[in-house]
Amino acid sequence: MGSCSLNYDPISDFYSKLSTSDTTATGSKYKTKADMQQQYDNIYVSIRNSQESWYLDMMAYCETHSDNAYSGATDAELAQLESNKQDGTNKNIERDWTSYLGYIVAANRVICNVDSVPDPALTTAERNQWKAEASIWRAWMLFDMTRLWGEVPVVTKETPNITSENVKDMYPLLFPSRSSVQDVYKQIISDLEYGVQYAPKVDSSNKFKLTQSVAKTLLAKVYAEAPVRDYAKVIQYCESVKNDGFSLVPNYSDLFSVNDAKTDVNYRNTSESIFEIVFPVGSGSWVTWMFGLDQCDPNSSYDWAKWITPSRDLIQAYENEGDDIRMNEAIVWGQPSWSIHYPSDHYPFMYKTRSRYNSIIKLRLADILLLEAEAYVNQGNLTAAADLVDQIRTRVKLAKLDASTKGSKDKMVDAVLKERRLELSFEGQRWFDLVRTGKVYEVMNSLNSRDSGRKKMATFTENSLVMPVPQTQIDSNPNLTQNKGY
């Protein structure tokens, strides 16, 4: 007991989340291709099981914490996000921090071990491919983490078995400090470039795959962010994604609709989808229950207050545009027994994930077209930007942008942002769009006066652009610091 120091005690909650060690005194435990196959498969298992942290909570950050939605339920964690009063004790924020680090650990098990598996049945091409897919997943998690929290730990190595001889050397691995945002993006870009080189090409029949196209899509998004902003590269990667054979589906409803018999969705793996988590019949996702009725379950009911309630401000935006097609795919009206945000006889619910069989679509072409339009606007090529926006508008039978808008950079900036809002509502984009385009203060600090149903929001400042680091993690790891303002 006297030889132990609390400062170097490796037994902690934080250590348990970061430990990726699967080694023994005689070397790696992954001796066969089957051993590593299991770790590779576990990445996709973890993605499919990420509905709580990577989808449901992400929707709260991007929709409830923006102007698109109210909290829906009355949980304190959601109410904080709606009113911009979140703090380091928010349990949802804590579970997401630890979940994302856990997903990175799963990726690292493949990245750090696949090349050392002695089984010759595991070919060089397979090793490169599996490592590339794991690298894309690690990069994606780091990207979402840095957009949510700013500086975050960059964990790329495994933690070996801890002994009295090496514990001091292992301390930085067990209790990592937060890396600068620039260093986080450096790692993200490196991982994604490896993914572009070695990940598989897109498979039109299976979009639940971390492909080269996914890596390119993420690189386009990464280079649109201020720390590494390069609009030429945004356009380059957007064009490369388009050249991979994706196309807009003819009807917007094809992305979300269920069949008339209400036994399955109409389409999965559409031509527009770049990455989606698929839930076929016989499987199914529980997350739809959190948003409203399950259209494929005749026994589904409004048995608790649902999350992500569409805001009056978003509904007004659809109505002002005459955008009935997209509004009717994003919002459905019901009659629950409760009336938290609206009268119970006419209550809106998020509708894009409307059954247990609906895919969770994380990346699709419309997002990339509008991101490319954003880049063109900032380069001053308003004609190219307007052409891309008009492609999106034409699909939903809206008029093309008028000449006055096409001739003004300021108007085009607003037009692209508005189009992204209407096209991508309830797909986990809005908050990141506002931050990326520098529109948070303009949009959010005027929301109290525009939206009568919104919980009164605290004023957004530069400290409001990132979430608080969970206090439990700071307590566990003395090298972590809190973000300013929390």
TrEMBL record:
Source organism per UniProt: Bacteroides sedimenti
InterPro entries hit by this protein: SusD-like_N (IPR033985), SusD_RagB_dom (IPR012944), TPR-like_helical_dom_sf (IPR011990)
Location of the RagB/SusD domain: 356-486
The SusD-like N-terminal domain, residue ranges: 29-223
Pfam families: SusD-like_3 (PF14322), SusD_RagB (PF07980)
Main location: membrane
The family this protein is said to belong to: Belongs to the SusD family.
Keyword field: Cell outer membrane, Membrane, Signal
Protein name: Membrane protein
Location(s), subcellular: Cell outer membrane
